[in-house]
């Protein structure tokens, strides 16, 4: 696929037309206050007999939205005795936490690595273990329209709340240095990292890689590719519901979370990306509030983005920010 979005100079100047709800902060404050009425109950069970000698792995369970159990992995260098910087990672759309040996990079760099499973997902490309016990009104197959009738019932209200609680769970482990916490992720994981960056004000760093869930009004207009296409297909069937649907989506738009970003950030974007259009990524990047921000641009890539090249950039930048 050739370049299909705005030219790079226009992307650097682009601003989203997504309208922030007047009660955005109140909505999220109330949501997180309700979640915190449930005991976090973060449990870390050391895994044995994995065949891994350079890392220690913990199977994690904590209470997310509604007190529902959410799974994760906590991976640290073997024999760690002193608190380490901790990276909290969120997973791409359709994937789950997978198996422990899929998560060796950051422990190999001397950091603690907390991987959050995504409720209800984990069957598209990497296995997961977390159910979503909450139902939905009529929706299209996938997750983008589950509960879209109202912000209070929208699927990503639960997932974003889980993500904030995942940071709290990661920080609760005695070998995690809470003052040196970063949120990272690619695609959906990048969108969740942005949300966490807007809701957790004391992160040390953020690394949203080709982030999804940004600038819904434009993203749904410039790409035919799923997952954004799920929203348009829903509206094709439910004629006349666009205003209500986009109002709901505005509470979950990475652009608005980015406007509250309070940590140094390393973004990435791919200019041939039809899954997360470049303009939607730049909408979040250009809105990002912290002055210390960078974006790696992969001119000839689709949604795979920088792949190992972006990991290399993160391995240079994040340890410096986390003083690792």
UniProtKB/TrEMBL annotation:
Binding site for substrate: 93
Active site: 187, 273, 303
One record GO biological process: polysaccharide metabolic process
Keyword Hydrolase assigned: yes
Class of this enzyme: hydrolase
Matches recorded under SUPFAM superfamilies: alpha/beta-Hydrolases
GO molecular function: cephalosporin-C deacetylase activity
EC assignment: 3.1.1.41
Domain Acetyl xylan esterase intervals: 1-315
A Pfam family assignment: AXE1
InterPro entries assigned: AB_hydrolase_fold, AXE1_dom, CE7
Keywords of this entry: Hydrolase
Ranges in a coiled coil: none
The protein's name: Cephalosporin-C deacetylase
